[in-house]
């Protein structure tokens, strides 16, 4: 009950400054003033990067609890003593300090009372915070230099130029202190571990200081910083404690004596060897993006073969796939339901209720109510566990690495308005009805298309704002346009769509007869690739008509999670190849493997790197890159399936036809038998 009442502190008191209640449950201006005066006194000082071993040591034991001690200050002291265990792997603060009245030593809560979390869970992220080798920082530099080559590599043998992306910056980590890391089963008492750790760190420091005096070592990576020395000593001590717990004291003493007898030349040789191993390991971990996928088939044969991978969508309506057009009665009922609710929606980000106004509200021109939206844009993941801990890790957000159970942060990102989306086919059809792919005799029989869509939030939900289609398997661009949505824009979702407001404003308006392919503008910097300039089509229907001009019902349409893209364009297509279905998750639908994960695992390269521009704004995804990645995954599946069929006796005739085992004619792959002439 106390926790739920304390959560009212974010709401202003109805009585305002005239409130006379004792310890009022609501927020007052005097609380904010009191918080500002006490935060400085209660906030622990962070450990500096260049701190020595004596300066960076935290408290060895928990402070004795007395009547005059503040629970909050004790909590912060414990956090600093654990070497930043209150921070995430990227240095984000997981818990904040509540103000304390210095005169009475009583807590004046602003949001809710805070109690120290269990040490076991508090230390989970810290044990994996440092890299497992003393050359981790060098490995980071090598990995950063190779990211740009990886992200700009070609997807297939033939494709249009794609702008290269700059490598992402490495996130800084919370400095650690010279304090043994907490283990589930400690091989010795804390005093013994601390004494051995200090001795080992002292030898590292001595050798490193002697190496600094070597003129040939200046400016190289051989000399370690103070923080790198601490991390190396912690890694060495932790590895010995976990792998050799029975002989831990003797093993640590042997390591100390080894470095005590080591000369500067031997230390330099060891550091050089470690750097070489780290560089080789970093190069080994980088994917080989130059290795092409060889199917053994020509492009027309691949298109003919991919029809075997077509997945009939009947029966998958429960997972978002639309196989039939909603009726006029269904559309009418959907519109009536929206009108009856007064356009009240649930935010897709923070789950708060709000109201939208298509065409803007007459009084003030607003598009939505309930103010700004604070949310977590990242997906959930399970954090790392300390060595020997087999319990399930805590769920965290990828955006800020905060625990899901932490109520202190309702979100790490704020947007101007709330947004919503709907997946109901009837309501989608009320904005723009679905259409089946019409016949088109002008489409080549050996054409397959890989496509991808980007969506943004409007007053009608999630609408199409970019459509890209490339020829499969070559990867040549057929269509890449921006799309003007039907409703007024709430948020272009740039973090994922990659579409910015200036792109929509400055785009050239497409007219019938114009080439739907993007134009390339040479960059002023010769080292940079040319910039893409997309045209803007007037509506989603116009974009759909452009796509219809490139395909017919028999054209294989390739994509990842095609139910989202098909619903955005409002297309019902009978020949769909979906990588979500070709590479299913081990738990089955509705759980799916992401395109980023599949590309890295099966193709050995990275996409959707979540890079940011000079202003810190995320660049977002590139629909052309995603479409080609899905196409390459399908080519990989074609190669594997054709190899399996060859083992069963299938072969190619002199004319390039597929011949079944023991047959002179060829059997249509995935269909009935066709006899030879």
Question: Architecture of the largest domain, CATH level 2?
Answer: 2-Layer Sandwich
Class from secondary-structure proportions: alpha/beta
Uncertain regions spanning at least 5 consecutive residues: 44-172, 285-290, 665-677
The pLDDT mean sits at: 78
Question: What is the name of the CATH superfamily of the largest domain?
Answer: Ribonuclease H-like superfamily/Ribonuclease H
Number-wise, the strands total 22
Helix content: 25-40%
Largest beta sheet, briefly? 8 strands, mixed
First and last CA, distance = 83 Å
**What portion of residues belong to β-strands?**
5-15%
Number of helices: 20
Shape: globular
The CATH topology of the largest domain is what? Nucleotidyltransferase, domain 5
CATH top level class name of the largest domain: Alpha Beta
For the record, the count of structural domains works out to 4
Radius of gyration: 31 Å
Q: Any overview of this molecule?
A:
Helix 7 packs across helix 8 (226-243), helix 12 (328-340) crosses helix 13 and helix 19 (595-603) crosses helix 20 (623-647). The protein is 33% helix and 12% strand. The protein has 4 domains: 35-126, no CATH class; 180-285, no CATH class; 299-325 and 434-635, 2-Layer Sandwich (Nucleotidyltransferase, domain 5); 328-415, no CATH class. With 677 residues, it is α/β, with parallel strands linked by helices. Strands 10, 11, 12, 13, 14, 17, 18 and 20 form an 8-stranded mixed sheet that branches.
Keywords for this structure?
about 675 residues; alpha/beta; Nucleotidyltransferase, domain 5; 4 domains; eight-stranded mixed sheet; 20 helices; about 35% helix; disordered C terminus
């Amino acid at each position: 009950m106390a926790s739920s009442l304390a959560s009212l502190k974010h709401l202003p008191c109805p009585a305002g400054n005239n409130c006379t209640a004792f310890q009022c449950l609501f927020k007052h201006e005097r609380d904010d003033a009191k918080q500002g005066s006490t935060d400085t006194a209660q906030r622990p000082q962070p450990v500096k990067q260049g701190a020595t071993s004596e300066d960076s040591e935290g408290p060895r034991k928990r402070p004795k609890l007395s009547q005059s001690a503040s629970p909050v200050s004790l909590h912060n002291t414990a956090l600093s003593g654990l070497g930043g265990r209150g921070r995430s792997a990227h240095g984000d603060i997981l818990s904040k300090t509540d103000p304390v009245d210095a005169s009475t030593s009583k807590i004046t809560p602003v949001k809710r009372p805070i109690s120290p979390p269990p040490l076991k869970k508090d230390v989970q992220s810290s044990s994996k915070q440092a890299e497992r080798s003393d050359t981790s920082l060098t490995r980071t530099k090598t990995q950063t230099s190779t990211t740009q080559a990886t992200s700009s590599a070609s997807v297939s043998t033939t494709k249009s130029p794609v702008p290269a992306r700059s490598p992402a910056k490495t996130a800084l980590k919370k400095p650690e202190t010279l304090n043994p890391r907490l283990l589930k089963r400690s091989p010795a008492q804390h005093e013994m571990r601390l004494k051995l750790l200090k001795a080992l760190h002292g030898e590292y420091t001595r050798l490193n200081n002697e190496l600094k005096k070597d003129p040939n070592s200046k400016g190289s990576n051989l000399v370690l910083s103070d923080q790198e020395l601490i991390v190396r000593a912690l890694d060495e001590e932790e590895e010995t404690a976990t792998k050799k717990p029975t002989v831990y004291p003797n093993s640590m003493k042997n390591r100390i004596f080894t470095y005590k007898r080591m000369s500067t030349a031997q230390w330099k040789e060891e550091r050089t060897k470690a750097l070489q191993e780290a560089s080789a390991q970093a190069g080994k971990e980088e994917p080989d993006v130059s290795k092409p996928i060889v199917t053994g088939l020509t492009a027309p044969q691949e298109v003919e073969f991919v029809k075997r991978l077509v997945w009939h969508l009947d029966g998958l309506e429960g997972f978002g796939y639309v196989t039939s057009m909603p009726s006029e009665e269904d559309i009418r009922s959907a519109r009536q339901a929206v009108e009856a609710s007064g356009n009240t929606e649930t935010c897709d980000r923070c789950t708060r209720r709000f109201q939208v106004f298509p065409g803007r509200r007459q009084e003030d021109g607003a598009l939505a109510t309930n103010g700004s939206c604070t949310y977590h844009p990242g997906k959930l993941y399970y954090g790392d566990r300390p060595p020997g801990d087999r319990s399930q890790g805590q769920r965290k957000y990828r955006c800020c690495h905060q625990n899901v159970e932490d109520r202190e942060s309702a979100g790490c990102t704020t947007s101007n308005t709330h947004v919503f989306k709907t997946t109901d086919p009837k309501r989608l059809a009320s904005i723009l009805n679905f259409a089946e792919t019409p016949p088109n005799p002008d489409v080549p029989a050996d054409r397959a298309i890989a496509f991808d869509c980007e969506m943004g939030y409007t007053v009608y939900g999630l609408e199409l704002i970019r459509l890209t289609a490339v020829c499969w398997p070559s990867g040549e661009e057929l269509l890449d346009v921006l799309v003007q949505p039907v409703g007024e824009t709430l948020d272009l979702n740039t973090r994922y769509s990659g579409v910015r407001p200036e792109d929509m404003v400055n785009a050239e308006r497409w007219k019938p007869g114009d080439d739907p392919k993007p134009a390339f503008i040479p960059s002023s910097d010769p080292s940079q690739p040319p910039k893409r300039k997309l045209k803007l089509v007037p509506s989603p229907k116009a974009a759909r008509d452009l796509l219809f001009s490139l395909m017919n019902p028999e054209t294989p349409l390739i994509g990842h999670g095609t139910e989202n893209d098909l619903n955005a364009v409002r297309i019902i297509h009978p020949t769909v190849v979906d990588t979500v279905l070709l590479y299913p998750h081990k738990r089955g639908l509705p759980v799916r493997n992401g395109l980023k994960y599949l590309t890295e695992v099966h193709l050995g390269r990275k996409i959707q790197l979540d890079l940011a521009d000079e202003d810190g704004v995320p660049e977002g995804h590139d629909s052309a890159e995603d479409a080609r990645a899905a196409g390459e995954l399908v080519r990989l599946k074609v190669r594997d399936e054709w190899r399996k069929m060859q083992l069963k006796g299938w072969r190619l005739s002199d004319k390039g036809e597929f011949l079944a085992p023991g047959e002179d004619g060829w059997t249509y792959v995935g269909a009935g038998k066709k006899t030879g002439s």
